[in-house]
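Reopening closed ticket. The problem is back. First fold of the pair:
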Amino acid sequence: MRTPQLVQAGGLPDEVTIYEVGPRDGLQNESAIVDVEVKAEFIRRLVDAGLRTVETTSFVHPKWVPQLADATELLARLDLPDDVRAPVLVPNERGLDRALAAGVREIAIFASATETFAAKNLNSTVDEQFAMFTPTVRRALDEGLTVRGYVSMCYGDPWEGDVPIDQVVKVGARLVDLGCHELSLGDTIGVATPGHVTALITAFVAAGVSTDKLAVHFHDTYGQALANTLTAFREGVTTVDSSAGGLGGCPYAESATGNLATEDLLWQLDGLGIKTGVNLPKLVETSTWMAEKLGKPSPSRVVQALAG
């Protein structure tokens, strides 16, 4: 299987963390409901390929995300190595109860930077969403869990248009103050460009949120995800969210091509000599297998190129 020629570049980290979201953010946006054993095997294969952070599922009410209604059953089927982080998305205290009962040690919460998305996705306002998050995060921390915070609509909103940078920073900083150990900045509709990425990261640092607490999460709707990720690395961020095979889509923009594909990211990182610990050929095999299970080709350009 072909690999990229190694040519390093300055101003980049020696190593980065790939936060794999395919089993959760990827599959929840697929129209088909995948069998629980297929999901479990998918996660096992991702781990075997070298991924050490895999967001496995969500404890959102099954009415809203039927694709992940089997969260408890899925986790019961997994026996992952001790060095693998397996966070789950938790929307509220009821979800936290289920996560704790399943033995979860790391959770993520999902916030909005804009009023319209907060209303549509959380039935809340930007301020009121923190009334829901606060008891959830405090209980999780008391139980010894680590908590990640997602901020959606960081670079643009389909209803409100441009999103002021200071508005995003205020929401993100509140999550960090609440106790989130990591903050993932989401380009929910894939409209970010490199200058915007630099400006947002710079603003967070100016507000006292260091780059070691930041992660980036780009959708590739306009083909900018890899450029934006490389920009974030140059600004000091070393954690990036991606989805094996480019699984998932964006329900808020026409022609959205979904999450940044982990294989596309790996091709770039391997060529730059940036360590990830992930085996690209094994990951391509895994995504090809998953595409067959879903009955449609992977949108990842690297999977298409290497899998034939």
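Second fold of the pair, where the issue appears:
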Amino acid sequence: MKISFENADKVNGLLTITVEEADYNEKVEKTLKDYRKKANIPGFRPGQAPLSLIKKQIGEHVKAEEIQKLVSDTIFNYLKENNIQFLGEPMPSAKQEEQDLSKPAPYTFVFDIAVAPEIKLELTDKDKLDYYEITVDDKLVDEQVDLFASRAGKYEQVEEYQAKDMLKGDMKELNADGSEKEGGIVKEGAVLMPEYIKVEDQKKLFDGVKRGEVVVFNPKKAYPDSEIEVSSMLGISKEQAANVDSDFAFHVLEITRYAKAAVNQELFDAIYGEGAVKDEADFRSKIAEGIANQLVSNSDFKLLQDLRAYCEKKVGKLVFPEEMLKRIMQKNVKDEKEVDEKFEASIEELKWHLIKEHLVKANEIKVSDDDVLDAARLQARIQFAQYGMNNLPDETVDNYAREMLKNRETLDGFVDRAVENKLVEAMKKVVKLKNKKVSLDDFNKMMEEDAKK
């Protein structure tokens, strides 16, 4: 086999492979003999058909497959062994001449290679970046305490209606004079939340209503242009609801209110485990510590974004094999217009990808299976914390994390996250960081501004 590689320029390469019979013949023969052992061909005992017959039936197909595998392996091995960083995938060249595999070797295959531009970048303590440490103030702790209390709350029966309460009762259609309509619509056990009535004067009719009292209101006026809500409330079809414009008497039988849990030892034990928290001050301290730990990932993400912008500016403009990259993109999308629309954004992401790879290599960063699992564990804990589940056993978190990693797409995402986590930690030791304390509101505003750029 002969292999040659030449550069038309710094980012476009041409790889030529000439395949001789000796390069593939042994594997072809072995595949045919293995097939013969299992072949069940009429007129011959199983495994006893002549090899010449097997070659006549599938020889050309097997030969083509083996050559294809050989060429594919050769391309990637050559690029790897010769440290040629390529983008996308090798593509058949316009210089490729048609090869007739039914004729004797040699066969010549020519591929265009998109070569990655060289990254020249070195970071030291002379490079300075801001690091935003998000402060945990009383407002954040109060919000989390309120969230815990809300999630641990329960529904209670009360005597008098307040905003956001749920009413349950019987509804009866009325005549224009306010009397009960004979043969009219009756809905027993109707459920209503007046807070969500869209028209204010209809909503106010329920202010301060007590259990056992009757409220007269008009569903059609309460929910104009919403036949679905009227039909659901009255238990009738949308078509019937479209023709209902009567007042209804709502006899309130139950008033249900969601009450937050008291901030006491019972709540402390439910959130952090029995005896883990002594009093409310300790409870708030643990909440503040948990929030601070969660916010570190926000600060690190901001640092990564700023590192990207800083490095891209320092590297400057890179020359890419644009024509070749567009060919690769066109292979994976149906609409050429989509290639043009997404091309610039793809180049920007590719530039950052190459810079990131350069930094990972320069800082000898390696990611293990445990690093990927740690990234999944962190995400699992964040997700559980959103539902007030802060004291889960490590085994539960591990099991959830491992389940997430079973999905190939999710796994790739966590591998990227593990690489970025290690990169951020490495860069904290390389560049000079200027710590800046900032509130969460101000931090979020900064992130919103960054997103607009």
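Update: turned out to be a display glitch only; the data is intact. Residues 155 and 372 are 42 Å apart (CA to CA). DSSP finds 15 helices and eleven strands in the chain. Please close again.
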